[in-house]
Every structure is written in C-alpha cells, then in structure tokens.
Write a structure and sequence with these properties.
Elements (H helix, E strand, L loop, with lengths): L4 H12 L20 H8 L3 H9 L7 H10 L4 H12 L19 H9 L5 E5 L3 E5 L1 H7 L11 E2 H7 L1 H6 L3 H13 L7 H14 L1 H9 L7 E8 L3 E11 L6 E8 L2 H11 L12
Antiparallel strand pairs: 1-2, 1-6, 2-3, 4-5, 5-6
Helix pairs in contact: 1-3, 2-3, 2-4, 4-5, 8-10
Length: 285
C-alpha cells in the first residue's frame, strides 16, 4: 500500500481535471494530462514547491485551510472533499479509530428485517473486510451460480473478485471491478487496521504485483453507486445498478442492493429470482 496516500490522491485528481473545467485555456502541446502543478498551485494559492512536496510525500501534514483550498481548486465532490480532509486528521499513520476491534460479523435484528423486506431483490450486508454476512434469496440466485458463495457465509467479496479465476469470466469489466474492490479495502485506516492489513498481506502473497501495484496506485475512495456488467451462466448478459448504504460507525457494515439497469436485465432477473408486486424495478443508467 502506498505510504503517500495524500500525494497519490492529489496527483490523480489533478490529472483528472481539465483546464477548461477550471476556466483555464487549454493551449497547445500539453504533455501533462489535466492540470499542471503550477496551474493547480495558482488556483489554490500555494507555491509550486509546496504542492510538489505534498505530491511527493515530503510533506504529509498540510493544514485544513490548505486542503480546503486544494479541494476548491480541484472541484472535488463532497465525498472526495471528506476523503481529502481526512488526511488532515491522519497525523499518525498508525492511528486507527476502531482500535483493535475486529470486523463486526453480527447482524442486528432490524438490519436483518430490512434485508428480508428487500426480497426478491439481490442485496447483501458486508463489513469492512468485504465479508458477505447476510444475503437475500435474490442475491443467492444471482451470485451463487458464479461461485461467490461456494464457501458459505461469511464469504469474502474481495477475495473472490481478485483471486478466483471465475471472476474474470463473469465480470466483463474485471480490471475496473478489481480497481474498485482495492479502493474499497483501502478506505478508512487501511494498513493501520490489523485485520485489513492481514488481508492485504494474504492477497499480496498470493497475487503478487497484480495486487500490490493496485495498492500503490489506487486511492481509497470507492464508488458507492454505479452500473456494472455481469455475464451470468443462467441469465445471460446483465446490466446491474448498485447502491451502497452505510450503517452507523458502531455497525461498521454496509448494505449493497442491486437493481436491473435496463428492461432486458429486469426480465432476466424476474426469471432468475422471481417478482412480486411492489418489487424493485429497472432504473435508468
């Protein structure tokens, strides 16, 4: 995992913002994707030398006002701003707000009741290790045939996607999916969490550079929603919209719900998992 998560995040966001987005002329012969360091430094009101130190990891403790100025200049979304400002609180890389507490594998009755009400929609509750703790019957019908639940519950979503050869067959956009899984594992304390650290070490030992390169180059800021493709052995090609809902910090769990992203997928899911009046339907996307 990169020891310079702040610098990695700043560089990737700088390269993702075009001059036109911040009101600058594009100009000819730009060798740098996105903004140049000098352009971002001017927009944020800091020196180029200081921005260089931040990106290179030679200064890892910027003040909150500096981070706010950078967030404004980079046109960060609210989630990206929260992620960036978190670096101002991470003065000690070994600090973990969860302490030594293990990943929560207990499902509260109210959470289970909510999950039951989502039937037959595919939905699951996971913890910070991406352990699959509880699922709907719809989730079993969708992901069981691709082998994700072969080991029973709790299964591990990240381990399946990154290390099971079948995942590459069933996810047409596997490279993108693997990137997002690594981003999910990296969010929060990362290696400061001994349980996440153990999973990192396991995956690094079994997968090598294919995993460690992602740790070094992908920031811990996963998507909470989007649309993905799945080649299902029974239902065929599916486009699935997903929404991720975070429970309280005490729960340390998330709920992931999958919806058909088009009418063809809706029809295929009806055949696979069944349909009931008032059930969740296809969404645009």
């Amino acid at each position: 995992m990169s020891e310079n998560e702040l610098g990695l995040f700043l560089r990737l966001r700088r390269e993702a913002v075009t001059p036109a987005e911040v009101g600058l002329p594009t100009g000819p012969r730009r060798r740098t994707p996105g903004l140049r360091r000098a352009e971002l430094a001017t927009l944020a009101g800091v020196s180029v030398e200081y921005l260089t130190r931040l990106e290179q990891g030679r200064d890892r403790h910027p003040s909150s006002p500096v981070l706010i100025a950078l967030a404004d200049a980079l046109r960060l979304t609210p989630a990206q701003r929260v992620h960036l400002l978190g670096f101002a609180k991470a003065g000690d890389p070994n600090f973990n707000c969860r302490g030594a507490s293990g990943p929560n594998r207990r499902i509260r009755p109210a959470v289970q009741a909510m999950l039951d009400q989502l039937e037959p929609a595919p939905a699951a509750v996971m913890n910070r290790l991406t352990e699959i703790l509880a699922v709907t019957d719809g989730y079993r019908a969708l992901f069981g045939p691709i082998g994700m639940l072969d080991a029973g519950l709790p299964g591990n979503y990240a381990r399946y996607v990154l290390s099971d050869p079948r995942a590459r067959e069933f996810y047409p956009d596997w490279e993108h999916k693997a990137d997002k899984v690594v981003a999910t594992l990296k969010q929060g304390p990362g290696r400061a969490d001994p349980h996440v650290n153990a999973l990192f070490d396991e995956l690094a030992a079994t997968l090598g550079p294919e995993f460690t390169d992602r740790l070094d180059t992908i920031p811990g800021l996963p998507d909470t929603n989007g649309v993905g493709r799945l080649e299902h052995p029974e239902a065929g090609s599916l486009r699935l919209a997903y929404e991720t809902l975070h429970f309280s910090a005490d729960d340390d769990q998330t709920l992931i719900v999958y919806l058909p992203a088009d009418d063809a997928t809706a029809a295929a899911l009806d055949r696979l998992v069944g349909r009931r009046p008032g059930g969740l339907r296809a969404v645009a996307g």
